[in-house]
Design goal:
Number of strands: 17
Largest sheet: 6 strands, parallel
Structural class: alpha/beta
CATH class of the largest domain: Alpha Beta
Radius of gyration: 21 Å
CATH architecture of the largest domain: 3-Layer(aba) Sandwich
Strand order of the largest sheet: 5-6-4-1-7-8
Distance between the termini: 13 Å
CATH topology of the largest domain: Rossmann fold
Oligomer: single chain
Number of helices: 15
Number of domains: 2
Bound molecules: adenosine-5'-diphosphate, 1,3-bisphosphoglyceric acid
């Protein structure tokens, strides 16, 4: 497959439409700064310094979730990282957006509203279908070129990622370039010793699908987070379903994946390590733990793997030649539920195994708990995209940049 064009191939002084991935944790409505801003700032600063009229697109959360918010705060945070103003318009491709684009001068940077507020963005469809949407057909003629810097969203066939490259000259931004090169090289690595993958987080659907394709590469999957509880359910434990009817973390992912989980357990049982104890908040809000074998009925939300499980996972990591992390093993943002995530990360940091830590949320735990990025082989701002790349599969958002038409 052809290599993609980069910013080195882009002639100066044009108007460019740039797709970033600024998808961030949101706590009580406040968007949390994280590595994605810092890394994408490099691409945007280069474009501004070279005198481009730069228009940014990005998404935040998913409709129906409380992380689905406007990008207004993102403009301020990004502006702090770039050191130059980032204007914001609360519109995706309507009259206000077009007027703001029209007002731009060389070196100006404008962020459009959350792409997922546009109905045509999300349904997963072929790039050719996305290129025909009103969203793409309205915005594209305003630009000379399209730049995709959102490697971490490149596994999604959404309009802002795969539609524009079909109708505009398309380039990879600096983050896309770096992440693609790093993750492609990592996928080609061969390890003599044990390869371990710690799997957690909330997006169980992404990781379960990938686990099905990594059975030959990974010797031991250490499970936590939502995926961990779904596997425990498949193993017969009375857990892995939602207690709060307003929160859908388990039920729909169970409905979508339970046959696959059951098959993976049946075919690869010796490679799957499940939690033997779990942590929850007791009546006083303190951390409490229970053995999985002692659970008769799920009456509390499990927020972390238990201390014995965390210790066992750290031991496996100390014996590994390579460790991959995707998703936190618990709600590490609260210190009392950080034991699983921190034990795994500290065990990696202490040993000289090759390691990759991925995920916009999970990599935040590194600084939060006093570790250094230098203690890890590669800290990716991608989660689902990087583990999919590990399987050797191509990412649709990268594929469209590589097309020769
Ligand atoms: N048991 C759990 N219940 C609720 N949330 C969890 C649980 N375990 C982990 N998490 C959350 O998962 C988030 C990371 O999820 P995800 O987006 O899949 O991973 P990443 O951002 O690393 O790709 C963390 O913010 C953490 O709070
Ligand atoms: O945060 C992301 O993925 P990740 O959590 O796998 O790192 C990307 O922005 C993709 O978001 P999505 O999983 O809502 O499509």
């Amino acid at each position: 497959m052809a290599a993609f064009q980069t910013l080195d191939d882009l002639a100066d002084g044009q108007r460019v439409l740039v797709r970033l991935d600024l998808n961030s944790p949101v706590e009580d409505g406040a968007v949390q700064d994280n590595r994605r801003f810092e890394r994408h700032a490099k691409t945007v600063r280069e474009l501004a310094d070279r005198g481009f009229e730069t228009v940014l697109m990005a998404h935040q959360g998913r409709p129906g979730r409380d992380t689905f918010v406007s990008l207004e705060q993102h403009a301020d945070i990004l502006s702090g990282h770039i050191g130059t103003d980032v204007d914001f318009v609360a519109d995706t491709f309507g009259e206000d957006a077009l007027a703001a684009i029209d007002d731009l001068g060389g070196g100006d940077v404008l962020l459009l509203e959350n792409t997922r507020m546009c109905d045509e963005e999300l349904p997963e469809e072929d790039p050719e279908v996305k290129a025909e949407t009103e969203f793409v057909r309205t915005l594209a003629p305003e630009f000379d070129a399209y730049v995709n810097d959102a490697y971490s969203a490149a596994h999604r066939s959404h309009a802002s990622l795969v539609g524009f490259p079909l109708v505009l000259p398309a380039y990879a931004g600096r983050v896309m370039e770096t992440e693609y090169e790093a993750n492609t090289a990592i996928a080609q690595k061969e390890f003599d010793g044990q390869v371990t993958m710690a799997v957690g987080g909330t997006k169980a659907t992404d990781v379960i699908d990938v686990m099905d394709h990594l059975g030959d590469t990974v010797d031991d999957f250490l499970l936590g987070g939502i995926a961990g509880e779904l596997f425990l359910r498949a193993d017969g434990a009375p857990v892995g379903f939602d207690l709060d009817p307003d929160l859908d973390l388990y039920d729909s992912q169970w409905a979508d994946n339970h046959e696959l989980i059951e098959r993976i357990l049946e075919e690869n049982r010796e490679k799957i390590t499940l939690a033997t104890d779990m942590a929850y908040a007791d009546e006083d809000g303190d951390r409490a733990e229970t053995n999985v074998a002692d659970i008769d009925e799920k009456t509390v939300s499990f927020m972390d793997v238990g201390s014995d499980t965390a210790e066992g996972y750290a031991d496996v990591i100390r014996d590994s030649e390579a460790v991959f992390v995707k998703g936190a093993l618990g709600v590490f943002e609260e210190e009392r539920f950080s034991v699983g995530t921190v034990s795994v990360l500290e065990a990696i940091a202490e040993t000289d195994c090759f390691s990759v830590v991925g995920g916009g949320d999970t990599s935040r735990a590194i600084e939060m708990y006093g570790m250094s990025e230098d203690d890890f082989g590669h800290v990716s701002i991608a989660g689902g995209a990087y583990i999919r790349a590990l399987t050797g599969a191509s990412l649709i958002g990268v594929e469209v940049l590589q097309r020769e038409d």
